[in-house]
Each structure stands twice: as C-alpha cells, then as structure tokens.
Amino acid sequence: MIGRSVLVTGGAGFLGSHLCDRLLGDGARVICADSLLTGTIGNIAHLIGRDGFRFVQHDVAMPFDPGEPVTEIFNLACPASPAKYAIDPLHTFRTSVLGAMNLLDLARAHGARIVQSSTSEVYGDPSLSPQPEAYWGNVNPVGPRACYDEGKRGAETLFFHYRQQHGVDARIARIFNTYGPRMSPDDGRVVSNFIVQALTGTPLTVYGTGAQTRSFCYVDDMVEGLVRLMAAPAPAHGPVNLGNPGEFTMLELAELVLAKTGSPSRIGFRPLPEDDPRQRRPDISLAGRMLGWAPKVPLSEGLDRTIAYFAERIHQGQTGE
Ligand code: NAD
Ligand code: UDP
Question: Which InterPro entries does the UniProt entry name for this protein (predicted)?
Fold first, then answer.
C-alpha cells in the first residue's frame, strides 16, 4: 500500500500552486506537471527541492508517464484567462480534450481517482441565475470563447463516459471565477487587471457598461472545495459547482478596488468582448450537501489579501512575467 501520491497538472499556475501547497501540507507526495504556458516556476519556487515535491515540465496534450504510481490526479492544466486562451485556440482545445483523455487513461491505468477543473463557462451566457448543475448552458460553439467553453464541455463528456464505461472514479468541479495571490499581473482577468491598474495609477479598463456580473471566490476557499471533492465518498451526482455566490457588477468591483487602494485612477470604458456572459452566480447547494463546503472569505477580505500581494510584487518591480 503506497501513501497518497498526487499528480497536479497545471500545478505551476495560480490555483494549482496553492493546491500543491495544501497537498504537501496534508502529507501527500506531489508531482506537479506543467508546460509553463501561463504558470511560472516563481509560483512553485518555494517548493522546489522540498521533500515529496517533484516538478516535471510537460504538455498534457501529450500522454504523461509519471514514472511512479499515482493515487490521485487533479487536472488543472489549461489557460484560464480569455486573453490567454484565445492566443492559440486550437492548442487550448487540445489541452482540454486531449489533456483530459490522456489523464483519464493515466487514472485508469493507475486505479487513481481524478478531479477535473471544469468551469462556470460551461453555462455560457446563462438564461437563469443562479446556475444549478442541472442547467445545460447557453454556449456559442463557434465564437471566440468556444475553444475554452466547448473544450471544457468535451472534457466533462470524457469524464462522464470514462466513469460510465471504464469505472474510473472521475469527478468534475465546475469552478466559478476565483482570484487571489499568484495570479499573474499580466493575466488579463478582471481582478488582477483592476488591482494592477489601480496600484500603478492607470485607468481601470471596464469592458462594456460594467453592468455584467461575476461571483468571485477566494483561492483558499476554492482549494478547500477541490480537496473535499477528491476526498468525498464516490459522488452519486455528476459535476459540482464550486464558487462564492456573492454577485457583483464589474463597475462595483472597479469602485471597490479604487476605494481599497485609494488610487487616483479613473475608470476607462472599453468595448465589451464578443460573447461575454452577462451574469454568473453559482448555486452551491449541492456542494453544501455533498461536501459540507461553503466559501468563508468575503470579497472585501480576499481583495485586501490580493491587493497586498500585488503591491509587494510591484514594489519589487515584478509587474510582468
Ligand atoms: P492559470 O493560467 O494560472 O493556470 C493554468 C496552468 O496550466 C498554468 O500553470 C499553465 O502553464 C498550465 N497549462 C496550460 N496549458 C497546459 C498544457 N497543455 N499542459 C500542461 N500545463 C498547461 O489559471 P488558473 O486560474 O490557475 O486555472 C487553473 C484551472 O482551473 C484551469 O484548468 C482553469 O480552466 C480552471 N478554472 C479556473 C477558474 C478561475 O477563475 N481561476 C475558473 C474556472 C476554471
Ligand atoms: N473585464 C473587464 N475589464 C478587464 C477584464 C475583464 O471589465 O480588464 C470583464 C469581462 O468583460 C467580464 C468580467 O470582467 O465581463 C470577467 O472577466 P474575466 O476575464 O476575469 O473572466 P470571465 O469572463 O472568464 O468570467
């Protein structure tokens, strides 16, 4: 009987690096596999050389041989920012679909449990709010976000059928917008953009009128949810929403960041990107029932911690990668 040996793909990214920290803290061995497309060695520098941690540079679109038995796999490998996943949409699609297939094959071969980081993007521009797992979504399959949204939907299908056809213990987390320290300053997502803009005195780029909403979850809460999903007895249900139901307009977020940073920046409106969802808010009742999980960190507190992180980076002159 081997101890816990956990493969974290995308482990050098924002969410993945926090997950690696948590798993090592829980006493697991951790293999972190990442292509370093949007993640950085800087995110895991404190783990390199630590007992029980191993980093491997690898693209999950290709099959992966960990070289040792693994008992659990968290598949987080995929660029998550619309600005980043649109740079090479075909590779984003390959990452989601071929990556999921390669890792499911690995889970099957090792008898490992596997958790997929799916996304609220599977709901597209939703026609109901909050979004429960039973909602099938409203996704444009041929728009600029399709490589990500449909890639993640395809990955969910693979998880469903590997479970059904091959008995793989495959679980799906539908992650809603998550933020916190170690987001890349040039990542392009709204929380990091607004904070970096406020701290550097440049205009906050609100897309459209800023009336669209998102629900923001602090990274520690998300890691707790992912760990609980992996540890839960085999779930009878399919995907599980993980996110913070607190819903804000982008204009509210901009004003909150300006107030917290005391920044002299103004708000500059930019065109709304095509297919940008108008609203997003998770129904997390299933996660509550199944995992006993609910987020604890309110946006105001999570923003304070994230602003402190970016302020330190900017102070050190590390504003880009
Ligand atoms: P991130 O960009 O910081 O991390 C993604 C990591 O995956 C990076 O380290 C990147 O280098 C790596 N990667 C990308 N393509 C790869 C490939 N082909 N092979 C190996 N590694 C690859 O983003 P994040 O916010 O940490 O997101 C992590 C996961 O969670 C992603 O799968 C994302 O889709 C999912 N997710 C995140 C959010 C969020 O709000 N943060 C929301 C929904 C889903
Ligand atoms: N957004 C914005 N300004 C920015 C970046 C994003 O107003 O500088 C908006 C974007 O149009 C979207 C919301 O903020 O409505 C969240 O965008 P993000 O890229 O963070 O995540 P996603 O759209 O994938 O939820």
Answer: Epimerase_deHydtase (IPR001509), NAD(P)-bd_dom_sf (IPR036291), UXS-like (IPR044516)
Q: Are 285 and 242 in contact (CB under 8 A)?
A: no
User: Which residue's CA is the closest to the ligand 2 atom numbered 19?
Assistant: 189
Judged by DSSP in three states, 308 sits in helix
At 98-147, the pLDDT tens digits run 999 999 999 999 999 999 999 999 999 999 999 999 999 999 999 999 99
Q: Kindly name the residue from 85, 123, 135, 148 that is annotated as catalytic.
A: 148
Asked if residue 279 has its Cβ within 6 Å of ligand 2, the reply is: no
- Give the angle 95-92-28 at the CA atoms, nearest 5°: 40
pTM: 0.97
**Fold that domain 5-178+218-243+281-296 belongs to in CATH:** Rossmann fold (3.40.50)
**Dmax (CA) of the chain:** 59
Q: What is the mean pLDDT of residues 167-182?
A: 98
Mean per-residue pLDDT for 58-64?
98
The domains of the chain are located at 5-178+218-243+281-296
Do residues 156 and 239 make contact, with C-beta atoms less than 8 angstroms apart? yes
321 — pLDDT class (breaks 50, 70, 90): very low
CB-based contact 139:79 (threshold 8 Å): no
Q: How far apart are CA 13 and CA 36, in angstroms?
A: 8
Whole-number mean pLDDT of the chain?
Answer: 96
